[in-house]
Write a structure and sequence with these properties.
Rossmann fold, three-stranded antiparallel beta sheet, CoA-transferase_III_domain, CoA-Trfase_fam_III, 11 strands, 2 domains, alpha/beta, elongated, formyl-coa transferase, domain 3
Length: 419
């Protein structure tokens, strides 16, 4: 059974999972735009609403900026990372005419995504209770730091803050007592990104439910909630085992050996997942007796005697180069890998073969390089050939097409700086 799609949408690429659905993306920075980009990749028509003149804050979050063949720096790498495949319209929602335009557009879309502070859109009459009567089928997704309810609802939330409050930094970094020991954030805004993923999942779930009910609903997503959810086994280690997890550097709390090791000329990752793999590792390192030692012959014993096991493995690893060890581990079915730089990652043969490095034609650059979407489907295609839009690039087109605004109306709105 198919979800009911917007009858006024004429999809440009029908062989996509979300062809025929339309999204109004009123978000900025990362979590909300990441949601919109995923939906655009899946084939939805995503209309990004931005402030006139300035647009999404991240357009100026640089350098680096796009190497602009036309001479001016206007598109930051940060903005380009989260806005592929969208249309950009500029509307000043602080003006009554701008609010009226958003209300009209809300009646023409399936989904609205916003990440204003709690109550931020209510004063403009653009919150869910205000828009729901105009479009009962609307799926309205709100993304905030702490959710629409709870003691922190009115607080602003930022990824770095959430990584700290949500427990992630308490398990990231070198162990206490070792050089450089302190809580460390993840190298990307992980709670923003994962909240964007959860939002895209929730939106598609709401669209599927709409098939049965005929109604939209309000989705309330909080970065702090997401941060708690993605603690996964670390959370259950505490909730079930009643032990507070601690920082282990690159080691794993439940598996040994599963960490980085120094070699004769660098570092590699060893990720042993079972006792057979451990025995193979010991054999290729020339210490087969370790695999039968009662302190190391099973994973629970290796976790219990972590320091002993690592003390036996580390010197043996340092007798070999990274290349030699990686080759030997591959042949022995021991999970391993190099520690690549981002440059090496995007030159990796697998990344290139699987389309994870895109080259797009942007209005300001003929070879815009972006990471691809990892989703691969057997029957449907994704849309990844449309670059992130220029500020307001599609304002007149969208208002003319969806709201039947004529040239005179559009000019009046422009003269009043509504658009």
């Amino acid at each position: 059974m198919q979800a009911k799609k917007n009858p006024e949408t004429t999809p440009s690429t029908p062989n996509t999972p979300l062809a025929g659905f339309r999204v109004l993306d009123m978000s900025r920075v990362l979590a909300g735009p990441w949601t919109g980009q995923i939906l655009a990749d899946l084939g939805a028509e995503v209309i990004k609403v931005e402030r006139p003149q300035t647009g999404d804050d991240t357009r100026q979050w640089g350098p680096p900026f796009l190497d602009n063949q036309h001479g001016d720096d206007t598109e930051s790498a940060y903005y380009l990372a989260a806005n592929r495949g969208k249309k950009s319209i500029t509307i000043d929602i602080t003006q009554p005419e701008g609010q009226a335009l958003i209300r009209q557009l809300a009646g023409k879309v399936d989904v609205l995504v916003e990440n204003f502070k709690v109550g931020g859109l209510e004063k403009y009459g653009l919150d869910y209770p205000s828009l729901q009567p105009l479009n009962p089928q609307l799926v309205y997704c709100s993304i905030t730091g702490f959710g629409q309810t709870g003691p922190y609802a009115r607080r602003p939330g930022y990824d770095f803050l959430i990584q700290a409050m949500g427990g992630l930094m308490s398990i990231t970094g070198q162990p206490d007592g070792s050089p450089g020991a302190e809580p460390v954030k993840v190298g990307v805004a992980i709670t923003d990104l994962v909240t964007g993923l959860y939002a895209a999942i929730a939106i598609q779930g709401a669209l599927l439910e709409r098939v049965q009910s005929g109604l939209g609903q309000h989705i309330d997503l909080a970065l702090l909630d997401t941060s708690a959810a993605i603690l996964a086994n670390q959370a259950t280690n505490y909730l079930v085992g009643h032990q507070v997890p601690r920082r282990l550097g690159n080691a794993h709390p439940n598996i040994v050996p599963y960490q980085a090791f120094a070699t004769a000329d660098g570092h590699i990752i060893i990720a042993v997942g079972n006792d057979k793999q451990f025995a193979n590792l010991c054999r290729l390192l020339g210490i087969p007796e370790l695999a039968t030692d009662p302190r190391a012959n099973t994973n629970p014993q290796r976790v219990k005697h972590r320091e002993f096991v690592i003390e036996q493995l580390a010197p043996a690893m340092q007798q070999h180069t990274s290349e030699a060890l990686l080759s030997a581990c591959e042949q022995a079915d021991v999970p391993c890998g190099p520690i690549n730089t981002i440059e090496q990652t995007f030159d990796d043969p697998s990344i290139l073969a699987r389309g994870m490095r895109l080259s797009l034609q942007h209005p300001h650059n003929d070879d815009l390089q972006l990471p691809g979407n990892p989703i691969k489907m057997s029957r449907n295609q994704l849309v990844q050939n449309h670059p992130p839009p220029l500020l307001g690039q599609h304002t007149r087109e969208v208002l003319r097409t969806l709201l039947d605004c004529d040239a005179e109306t559009l000019q009046k709105l422009a003269d009043k700086q509504v658009i």
